[in-house]
Write a structure and sequence with these properties.
The structure is a homotrimer of 285-residue chains. Chain A is an alpha+beta fold and 285 residues long. The first copy, chain A, has helices at 17-28, 46-56, 99-103, 148-161, 260-264, and strands at 5-9, 34-38, 65-69, 80-85, 88-93, 121-123, 128-132, 171-172, 177-179, 187-189, 192-200, 206-211, 219-223, 226-229, 242-245, 250-254, 271-276. In chain A, strand 11 and strand 12 form a beta hairpin. Chain A starts with a strand and ends in a 9-residue tail after the last strand. In chain A, 55% of the residues are buried.
């Protein structure tokens, strides 16, 4: 019985980088099952990778190995790590990539939970155990400076899939900290709540840090000087710009059959304000 | 013994949408085998998805589960369905996406057969049995408004792959009708035969509704004011524009090492006329 | 026990071409494991496919079937072949695509070795055995003019994965030759060494024909009138243009967080000169 590997990178699919990592995994663990989460994270965008993991991980099997490589610091002194959270084991660079998924509690039935991360460090306690990957005998014999997915992380994931215990792959990091990104918390104000765009998907939908429970009744969403009255139920609405609760539970801003990112010329970090609507107050579009 | 799942969407591969559906499937059916047909259907282009299925399905194993999600109406009252045709089972929205593949008889050895669909409805009779997917206990416990691939269709495909009978997943639709697209039939005229472009592939090849048997001998293909004399045998021809019978059996218009769609600035729906050539008549380029 | 299939093409992922080949394989060999190496080789770019195979193959399991289809001559008289090298078997068109991988010795532990190919022919001797694929009973019953991946190569790979011996699939080519590309050898001159760009990856990195052992100490890399002093250890360098030994062992030219191909407007074939640096001589940037 092998653990399934779920694989996320910014490698793209134009070259053989992803295929070669899979080949290395299958050489070590011929029965491993490898599922692509995505390889389309924008190059070097570690935060986008962190958000993608945050929203995907709750839906993974409980015995998943999560192999995540968005690693602009490859070849520098950033550390390679593996961390167990519940039954799942995460393998990747210690650069914040794993932090949002690790800090979010997982629930049954699955749903995305917003992580609480107010400092750029995540303490490995409370059910998290981790190791520094410092056992070269579990890697490829020759380690390049620029492709640790192939030479380090892939082999480690393969060993984990095949049943090697975490403790055999490195020195314990438990009760120390790993790198993290602060997750923007909703800023409740008298005028409403302030959040920000945290991810832009390939449709140009703007996914924000706000969840349904943060919003006032009858909300008016303000972004880049535009006001959107109320929430749509789905994307089949004839309106130039809509807001809705997306499939991950976050407020999203979308253009039906178009791209909100292109229309508004905004990306991650853009402030989004949600206030009470006409029925409740005086703000107007 | 599980049935293999063949998976087609317009989700793209930049985000984790496809990977998350696979994760949900593997949580329900850990031994399921999932093969991507494509996730590159243009967003919301249900007809392009229908054509892609029409040409792919004859080559699928007879026990395949076809999971197809091009679903601009997600969250509206369009119905989720599953339909069995021969040994294969199709899962997706009732919006015409499945109609061309379901209306085309499958043959051994495999080849693509043009469906006869003159009305926007397909009657579930003559070997087709189907169900309305109305058993929430076979879905994820929480169903979002916008991601039924993850919450409804993926779980249903997983149960089918694991051997659950179709009848356990919904109420019978047999002897009722589902949504369909009319398939353009060749219009035989005194001057020749009139068809249209039905699909544009990533090389910019224009795939038409016409098959070899529709064409006059020594054909001249007319499209957007251009005439192409005769059919090429392959793509290695030094000509600015060629016509040939493509791998799905349909007449295609192509630019060797280039894009016919870009050169002619045409897409699906563009009329294509094929008349007898110089050897047989008077039409000239 | 089936052999795993590693699959490389220029088909892209927008259409169902790749998925249909997999469906055909799984119809013949239901337990086959199919891994994508890449389907993003630029259309018809056989040399780019050859380089991709050269750098990937050393990392494949020893029992791999390599299914490679970049085949602009499909439907012409180019031959379909299968060649065994060590334990691995390669299936594809006889157009040079396989030649670099077949000419490079494989080593344990894996690393990329530069092939020696001074003539456009590769002799099948010294551990290579091959067949001309001339047994239509191992193909699909109906063979199209333009999709031999589906109709010929995919079925052959499936039979090989399922254990059919190579000799059952065609007539022996052993002690004859197949098509090859010459591989550019380093040209050692008094001023340094001259090589060329052989591949451009999706990040715009320029991969050259030169390896670490070809370079003088303290090297200065010259390309398109630009000089780069010394080799970087990784991509996290604040410089407009860097040179480093890439993960395949070849000298690469890169723009940190950018594209060297776009900056320099160069592609495969571009000359690259490497001379001794300031510490050893007088060349300056």
């Amino acid at each position: 019985m092998t653990r399934p590997i779920f694989f996320l990178t910014d490698f793209g699919l134009s070259d053989t980088y992803v295929g070669v990592v899979k080949a290395v995994i299958l050489t070590i663990a011929p029965d491993a099952r490898i599922v692509d989460l995505t390889h389309g994270i924008p190059p070097q965008d570690v935060r986008a990778g962190a958000f993608a993991l945050l929203t995907a991980v709750p839906y993974l099997p409980k015995d998943a190995v999560v192999l995540a490589v968005v690693d602009p610091g490859v070849g520098t002194n950033r550390r390679p790590i593996a961390v167990q959270a519940g039954g799942r084991i995460f393998v990747g660079p210690d650069n914040g990539l794993l932090s949002w998924a690790l800090a979010a509690p997982t629930e049954t039935p699955p749903r995305v939970v917003r992580p609480t991360l107010r400092r750029p460090l995540l303490r490995l306690a409370d059910g998290l155990s981790g190791v520094l990957l410092d056992r070269p005998d579990s890697w490829l014999p020759m380690v390049s400076a620029s492709f640790h997915g192939r030479d380090v992380f892939g082999p480690v994931a393969a060993h984990l899939a095949a049943g090697t215990p975490l403790a055999a792959l490195g020195s314990s990091l438990t009760s120390t900290s790993i790198a993290a990104f602060c997750f923007p918390e909703p800023d409740q104000r008298s005028s409403g709540v302030l959040g920000q765009v945290v991810y832009v998907d390939r449709f140009g939908n703007l996914v924000t840090s706000l969840m349904a429970r943060d919003l006032p009744p009858d909300p008016v969403v303000m972004v880049r000087g535009r006001a959107i009255n109320g929430l749509a139920e789905h994307f089949q609405v004839s309106a130039p710009l809509i807001a809705l609760i997306g499939s991950a539970g976050f407020l999203e801003i979308a253009v039906p059959n178009g791209s909100a990112a292109a229309l508004l010329q905004v990306g991650a970090g853009e402030p989004v304000h949600v206030g009470p609507g006409e029925a409740s107050g005086t703000i107007r579009a």
